[in-house]
Write a structure and sequence with these properties.
- The complex is a heterodimer.
- By secondary structure, chain A is mainly alpha-helical.
- Chain A has 24 helices and 4 strands.
- The chains are: A mainly alpha, B alpha/beta.
- At the A-B interface, α1, α2, α4 and α18 of A face α1, α3, α5, α7 and α8 of B.
Chain lengths: ~475, ~700
């Protein structure tokens, strides 16, 4: 690899073209030209660059490239070991270490070390990051523990609605999402009825900005994350209505970038986490046509790299948690092919403009909604999951499982970002969620079970299916859906 | 959610950690207590100090940030001395800095700083803010909080975009893999060009410089992703047209159309019939537009036709935008026969006609064509199909005496219009092409694909002065690249095949000389001579450049690999179509043909219709039975005659919209199914020939 790079660089043509002439600010300051020109004459080795200093013939690699190569090498070693192994060994290597993960997660629920103090403002998240993966592993909690969690979250529930990061703190949309998803995952009558929906609705209205977008908390920041957590919770507990929904879709559409993905706020670059949040929220609002789906799919598909896992943004390192953010989002699009097809047909020969234009061209969907107060928003999430996939996976579902099983699992239990990193509950939650999504992504019939060839490793690796719009286990979702549609 | 602090790696001294945690718990309890307190002492110096201590350890404590905002607002009210206010603001700014040092991705901390600045209580220290950002982006050049704050700051302080552009350059020179910097560059440049800022009046100059810049990065390391993304953005900016333009029409300028009136049965009175003829006018734009109507397109003629001309988009999508628009002139027997009429089409600049990006139509076009009407009650119409039409054309290739076989004016509109602004695009792209041809890494698929895209962008700039040979050279080279790519990157094979097909069609139709090899005039018995085009055995997988085929009446696309016929809907004069021996796998893939009103003969034999039990295109096109009960009522009449509607709904939809006289469908799985022939005959009452046999 390094040799190949060296060769390709040294053969670069010496093109001498006129520098930008005067008038405009020089776009290529001398130091820029130097750092990008690998020819030895014009690239004086600078002191702080070991590569250039060591060998003037070898061009300098950027920090990003060095990091990327390290990760590739590390992952490559693991995969080579797999391919060289005997079939039996292979099967063992590809096993999901259920018991260890269960042990790690349950232990965390009972006691966390003092080092967790930095997560003091995120305590419902800790509950969700442990309770949800346990449900994915089909591991029931004992009753006492469940009740403790319900009681704890009740203390996080603000008297004026919403859940805070810990008792006494301000209610916050993200922790509200974590708390509600945890309670739905516990699923008992007691858990579900502990949510004060009237107050929750009022809290959400308070969090709504005049632009339509949501802010995270009183006086807090506005971004796509806030919109998703609000819409997801509202849809899940059946309080989503036109009042909450209006303007959100347009805000999200304004965050789609020319790359195809969705950014956290307008003008920022596309980001896997926000892209999931944006897409899932749009689907829950039945407004997925507001973003350019073909270019979104293109962006996500190319975030899966040679390491088999996903990166979060262009030219960043692979990270196990994007197995869910990117993996689930692209799996969602398997049910949106009707819209994709429409958009493709109408944009034949023409690059679709992003941003403001994207919403003006397809706003017919929402204007119709605005005038009808009878829109049943909870239905959108329900109907979506009833639908079958309209097409096979648009990402490499087996490769993703390979990355999660071989590179993200930690022998002592728990999952991680990438080899060389430590396990944590956040990554355990999202690696396992991503694993579940990829195991079920090749199914065409919504009611059947995945075929063995779509589950990498022994079939016992199969996790519970999730509802990918909310990221809660599907059975739990159905219980909650029934519970909240009664009221 | 992501980027929350992780658990520290090293098992610290347990006791020390416990003590720290206990201290933090204590701190948090006190801060929250103060936050909820209703007494005057809630905002004392000590109380505020405690919140600082908490945030210093845990910047994620958003409640504490809010507490500080309230405290700040409360306390600042009592200050009047600007110096004191400034020092209060400074204190807050310092807290944020300390917090960011602990966690550079703390949402709360970044937002607190934005909030403070927005209070506009004290002059902002420009240097300090940008210094802070520099420090943080040095630690993590991709920290999106940092970039967001930078954009916020630039807007807030009114920093000219030019300055910010310089900053992105610095960052790129530090590390050309820094995609965040490239990305911000694209945002800033877009702004500058839209505002026509000083030094940015010329798109041409700016993009030339940008191409040069990014190419350097790409050559330094073709395997790095960041530059390719930026290059893609640049290419999109360079090759996209500024305003919609009409690139072709049929009839075209000065064309002579011979049109015979046909005796058509009027459904209501079964015995009477009228002489009439529908003449389609097709307009083809370089990008999808909407807003064509009677006022935006003026039609003038001494020929009488029905008053309300409707312009309809010819597209499968219902977005209202289309490259291709058609209007149908209904000429009836009131016109006396055997005469020539002239029709004038005039499209002035119009605010009605707009592209998707909102650009108006501002390239006025005016053209005239003639229609010659023949009323011939013996030879025309049904008699044409006395015998099945044979596709074996080898003998029918005859140049037809006094008639110019192909309208040479066909591409006239195109070349006249696109000339003015395309020179710099062209030169810019040519330079890029020269450069990319020398890209050292022979097997870089990025490199090959980009080169191919550049070549095509270049070939697409049509200009009369440009040499055709040069242009065909570009196509030729791109063809080679796509062929390489099909082997090099088999997982995207279908995409490359489709692209290759488009290039091939471009190459074969871009000049008259080459095109003529595929064109002929065909004389069928009992018919006026027909314009015939043959594009067989070319491995085409899709149709492109339909705007050059608008005049075709007989089209032979047999022995290709077509998976779709999208594009053919523009061919409104098409009567005979041969797509036998292709890869069509469903009726839904044939949907565009439903829009061709003149289609009489269709050869679908030896395709793959019905071969796959699961037809993926069926998923795309929702079955009328899956959701809507209403739609299925329309099929009731077929149910009555014992047609299995559930199985054949897509066939029913397709065939009943066609008025075919002849259909060949043998060699498809579906044709061997029981009752299929009966089905087709029922659906197309005017069908005379089915798979070579007389229907009656």
């Amino acid at each position: 690899m390094p040799q190949h790079r060296a060769r390709s660089r040294s053969r670069r043509p010496q093109h001498s073209r006129a520098q930008p002439s005067g008038g405009a600010p020089p776009l290529t300051p001398p130091q820029a030209a130097a750092s990008m020109d690998p020819s030895p004459q014009s690239a004086p080795p600078t002191g702080d660059d070991p590569a250039a200093a060591a060998d003037p013939e070898l061009p300098r690699l950027t920090v990003t490239q060095v990091e990327q190569m390290k990760v590739e090498a590390r992952v490559g070693d693991i995969y080579r070991a797999l391919f060289g192994a005997a079939p039996n060994t292979k099967s063992i290597m590809l096993e999901l270490w259920r018991d260890q993960h269960i042990e790690y997660l349950t232990r965390g629920l009972r006691h966390l070390g003092p080092a967790f103090h930095v997560l003091d403002a995120n305590r419902p998240w800790l509950c969700y990051w442990m309770v949800h993966p346990l449900a994915l592993l089909d591991e029931a909690l004992d009753d006492d523990l469940e009740n403790d969690i319900i009681d704890f979250l009740a203390r996080c529930q603000d008297k004026d609605g919403g859940y805070s990061g810990g008792p006494g703190q301000l209610p916050h949309l993200a922790t509200t999402y974590a708390a509600v998803n945890t309670l739905v995952t516990i699923g008992s009558e007691r858990a579900l009825s502990s949510i004060n929906r009237d107050n929750l609705y009022k809290f959400m209205l308070r969090m709504k900005d005049i632009s339509g977008a949501f802010r995270m908390h009183d006086g807090g920041e506005i971004d796509v994350r806030a919109s998703y957590t609000a819409i997801s919770v509202a849809s899940l507990v059946n309080i989503l209505d036109v009042e909450l929904a209006k303007g959100v879709g347009d805000y999200i559409a304004s965050c789609q970038t020319y790359e195809g993905g969705i950014a956290g706020e307008p003008y920022a670059e596309a980001h896997g986490g926000y892209m999931f949040c944006g897409l899932a929220a749009l689907i829950l609002l039945n407004e997925a046509e507001k973003v350019d789906l073909p270019s979104l799919i293109g962006w996500v598909a190319f975030r899966q790299g040679v390491e088999c896992g996903f990166q979060g943004r262009n030219n960043k390192l692979v990270d196990g948690c994007y197995s869910f953010w990117q993996g689930a989002a692209i799996a969602l699009t398997q049910k949106l092919i009707t819209i994709v097809d429409k958009q493709l047909k109408s944009s034949y020969f023409c690059k679709r403009p992003s941003g403001e234009d994207a919403c003006s061209t397809s706003s017919y969907g929402c204007t119709a909604k605005k005038f009808s107060s009878a829109v049943d928003y909870a239905k959108f999430g329900f109907d979506f999951i009833q639908q079958s996939n309209q097409i096979g996976p648009l990402f490499h579902n087996i490769a993703l499982q390979q990355y999660i099983l071989l590179c993200s699992q930690v022998l002592e239990g728990g999952l991680r970002d990438k080899p060389g990193k430590n396990r944590d509950h956040y990554h355990s939650c999202y690696c396992l969620s991503g694993l579940s999504v990829s195991q079920y992504s090749a199914m065409t019939d919504a009611d059947s079970c995945p075929l063995p060839q779509h589950v990498l490793g022994p079939y016992s690796n199969l996790l519970e299916p999730i509802h990918p719009l909310y990221n809660v286990v599907l059975d739990k979702y159905h219980t909650a859906y029934e519970f909240f549609s009664k009221e | 959610m992501h980027g929350r602090p992780r658990r520290p790696a090293k098992p610290e001294d347990e006791e020390a950690a416990s003590a720290k945690a206990a201290k933090l718990r204590d701190l948090q309890a006190q801060v929250l207590h103060n936050h909820h307190a209703r007494t005057a002492c809630r905002y004392t110096k000590e109380a505020i100090g405690l919140s600082f201590k908490l945030l210093e350890i845990n910047p994620e404590a958003y409640t504490a940030w809010n507490y500080r905002k309230l405290a700040f607002q409360h306390n600042v009210k009592e200050l009047s001395d600007p110096e004191a206010i400034k020092s209060a603001v400074d204190d807050e700014l310092r807290v944020v800095e300390v917090a960011l040092r602990q966690n550079p991705k703390s949402y709360g901390a970044w937002y607190h700083r934005k909030w403070l600045l927005n209070q506009k209580l004290a002059p902002v220290d420009f240097k300090r803010e940008f210094g802070l950002l520099d420090k943080l982006l040095k630690v993590d050049a991709r920290n999106f909080h940092g970039w967001n704050y930078r954009r916020f700051l630039a807007r807030f302080m009114g920093v000219p975009d030019e300055e910010e552009l310089k900053y992105t350059m610095d960052k790129i020179s530090e590390n050309f893999s820094n995609y965040s910097a490239w990305h911000n560059r694209s945002i800033l440049l877009s702004n500058l060009l839209i505002q026509q800022s000083k030094g940015f009046e010329s798109k041409q100059k700016i993009f030339s410089e940008e191409f040069e810049l990014v190419t350097q990065a790409l050559f330094t390391d073709p395997s790095d992703q960041s530059g390719w993304f930026y290059h893609l953005w640049l290419l999109a900016q360079t090759s996209s047209p500024d305003n919609p333009q009409l690139i072709a029409s049929w009839p075209s300028n000065a064309a002579k159309l011979t049109s015979s009136l046909i005796k058509e049965k009027v459904e209501q009175h079964t015995l009477s019939s009228i002489w009439s003829r529908t003449v389609p006018i097709v307009l083809y734009f370089n990008e999808p537009v909407k807003g064509l109507n009677q006022s935006s397109v003026n039609l003038k003629s001494d020929l009488e036709f029905s008053k309300d001309i409707q312009w309809r988009p010819l597209t499968m999508a219902d977005s209202g935008y289309s490259n291709c628009w058609a209007a149908y002139l209904q000429i009836s027997n009131e016109c006396s026969s055997l005469q020539e009429y002239s029709v004038e089409v005039n499209i002035p600049c119009s605010d009605d006609i707009v592209s998707r990006s909102g650009s108006n139509y501002n390239s006025p076009v005016h053209f005239t064509f003639d229609i010659e009407l023949i009323s011939n009650d013996t030879a025309q119409g049904l008699d044409l199909f006395d015998k099945p039409v044979a596709w074996n054309c080898s003998e029918s290739f005859q140049s037809h005496g006094n008639r110019d076989p192909i309208p040479v004016d066909l591409l006239k509109i195109t070349s006249a219009l696109v000339e003015q602004d395309s020179n710099w695009h062209f030169e810019r792209l040519s330079e890029e092409i020269d450069l990319f041809r020398e890209l050292p890494d022979d097997n870089s698929k990025f490199g090959k694909l980009t080169l191919a895209r550049l070549l095509l962008a270049c070939a697409a700039i049509k200009s009369r002065g440009r040499s055709l040979i040069e242009r065909k050279g570009y196509c030729e080279e791109a063809l080679g690249l796509f062929t390489d790519l099909i082997h090099l990157d088999p997982s995207h094979k279908q995409y490359y095949e489709d692209e290759r097909s488009l290039v091939l069609m471009d190459k074969l139709t871009c000049d008259m000389e080459t095109f003529m090899n595929h064109c002929s005039v065909q004389v069928q018995p009992n018919s006026a001579p027909l314009n015939h085009v043959q594009l067989c055995r070319l491995s085409l997988t899709r149709i492109g450049f339909a705007e050059r085929l608008l005049w075709v009446q007989m089209l032979d696309l047999s022995h290709n690999s077509l998976r779709s016929v999208e594009g053919l809907e523009a061919l409104q004069h098409l009567m005979f179509l041969n797509i036998s021996n292709n890869q069509i796998s469903s009726f839904t893939a044939l949907e565009p043909l439903m829009k061709i009103i003149s289609l009489k003969v269709l050869d679908l034999s030896f395709n793959k219709i019905g071969a796959h039990s699961i037809d993926t295109t069926r998923y795309i096109c929702s079955s009328p039975f899956s959701h809507k009960i209403k739609a299925s009522e329309a099929f009731e009449e077929y149910q009555k005659v014992n047609i299995n509607v559930e199985e054949y709904w897509d066939a029913i939809r397709f065939f009943r919209s066609l008025k075919l006289a002849q259909l060949d469908i043998k060699g498809n799985e579906i044709a061997s199914k029981e009752n299929f022939r009966t089905l087709v005959v029922t659906l197309i009452p005017c069908l005379k020939w089915f798979d070579g046999e007389d229907v009656n």
